[in-house]
Amino acid sequence: MTTTSSRRNTAKSAPLTHRSLVAVVAVVGLVAGCGNGDGDGDAVPRSEIGHVHDLIVDEDALLVATHRGLLRLDDGSYRRIGAEVHDLMAMTRDPSGDIVASGHPDLRLEQYRVGGAPSFLGLARSPDDGQTWEILSLLGEADFHAIVPNETGLLAGDSTGTIWRFDPDGDGQPVGSIPFDINDLAVSPDNAAAVVATSYEGDVAVSDDAGQTWKLQQGAPLITEIEWTIDGVLGATVDGELWAAASPAGPFERVGDVPGEVEALLVSDDRVWAATHGGQIYRQENDSWTPLVRSDD
Known about the structure:
mainly beta, Methylamine Dehydrogenase, Chain H, four-stranded antiparallel β-sheet, 1 helix, 44% strand, globular
């Protein structure tokens, strides 16, 4: 879910007006290329997926949120899921197990066009692991870059730094704000009121009231991706440094390096995955990293 310092002014972190224009241009490109890797189950070359923004474990495979829609990484290759090609900027599973996501919609489809509004997906849900999508709320109004489940529903951070709280039906309201463009969010597994947020520039902020108020953490590493497990937090910098701490308050300890520029980080059942610039995804095994995407894809 990050960009490198040399790519910080890309569509994901550009001002809203520019981001909307980029999303529209991207969709025009998809229309022109329709039929080439845009059908359900079609192979998508690693070189064409753009940025990776989020990962979900799905049995022995990974679900991958990208600028080219939702993909499945299985047996070394990316395959498209469903026929809708949304630019997915954030993705997670809600407490019921459905996928929820945000970003920019596939404007080839009329139901996602809102006259005069930015091309924002709002909050969308898929009950069938990405085969189909339905809008829960805020189509044309919000572009969430981070979404996490909590004990009552979801927390989400939008491209203006606003924190939203959603109930299980997708009804939401803003509850707080952070003075930066939010890149990632994580909630403590032991205390749903404890939340950490990161920016694209490596700022770290913490909240002890479920996102209503925030305090910047001074002296923390320049973490852009962060996960919070029962063992503490694990964060990654853009350049691939891994840092761990018992809590976001630190102190942080350098615990390794990812072989690439990190765009997304996932910790699940004591396993760690990292997506890097260029479409490669690595799984940590002991003290080494195994690439999961074949080099010829």
